[in-house]
């Protein structure tokens, strides 16, 4: 799940929305009740903090505009409905594939600043960054491999047949595996950020329920389901229900078609790319937290071992959410690609 794919504030990752305001990544402490109270208070106060961060981000962007004009992304859409935004004017190109289920280019001011915060480090490093969403009106049964074919077509049609770097984050990383395995001639290097060749049953089940709630317009339920990642366990169920409508407001403005949400979630439920790892003929950087509950260390190690040229970087003590919000992501990626 990804807030960037629904509202544009941070992504990345299945629960990238929470990465903007959750410092946790591992299991809850033994003192569950006290921990829950602290988390609830922190979650509520964080909404006010987000507004302040957005205002500060706008000020920083204005101050930087004179030296590096990366403050105004160009937004467009392809004939088959792949929304995209472009930031920077560098000679080398980055294709950024966002998380999911569901992806879109947001229209709100705060959400748009979220995209800037995500892509700006790469643009300022001299790259032109293309963040590209999944196509619209995908047919039933459209797989993660089929989505990779859609991105390959985008590279041919919009990027002249080649992109220097592909960065796939969480759900986007799942797609990037197939893109690297089956369309290697189109790309130079691949970054799998918080992703691997398969996913835990808990991750599949959570994302499927979350996507169905959104598709059916049950945004309060969607918010409560999303909170299961940061407030797990039956003892937190009441708190999740109370906070669900508040969190669900962030999903209510999404314009991803309901059917596409379901297609993506069902494709994730069937996802297993282990058989194609040996076909990847480009260098790969794989980054993951060692407390990730979607892509566990065993899954990540097996993925890295199956890729002929793979550099594995662990974010120690971090889960999916905390690693997604970590400032280490762009630093590690830029250090590897430059």
List the helices and strands and how they pair.
Elements (H helix, E strand, L loop, with lengths): L15 H4 L12 H33 L9 E4 L5 E5 L4 E6 L11 H16 L2 E6 L11 H15 L4 E7 L1 H12 L4 E7 L7 H15 L3 H8 L10 H16 L5 H12 L14 E6 L7 H10 L3 E6 L4 H6 L2 H10 L1
Parallel strand pairs: 3-4, 3-5, 5-6, 6-7, 7-8
Antiparallel strand pairs: 1-2, 2-4
Helix pairs in contact: 2-3, 4-5, 6-7, 6-9, 7-8
Keywords:
338 residues; alpha/beta; eight-stranded mixed beta sheet; 12 helices; 8 strands; 46% helix; globular; disordered N terminus
Structure description:
It is a single chain. By secondary structure, the protein is an alpha/beta fold. The chain is 46% helix and 14% strand. The chain has helices spanning 16-19, 32-64, 109-124, 144-158, 171-182, 201-215, 219-226, 237-252, 258-269, 297-306, 320-325, 328-337, and strands at residues 74-77, 83-87, 92-97, 127-132, 163-169, 187-193, 284-289, 310-315. The protein has an 8-stranded mixed sheet, sandwiched between helices. A hairpin with a 5-residue loop joins strand 1 (74-77) and strand 2 (83-87).
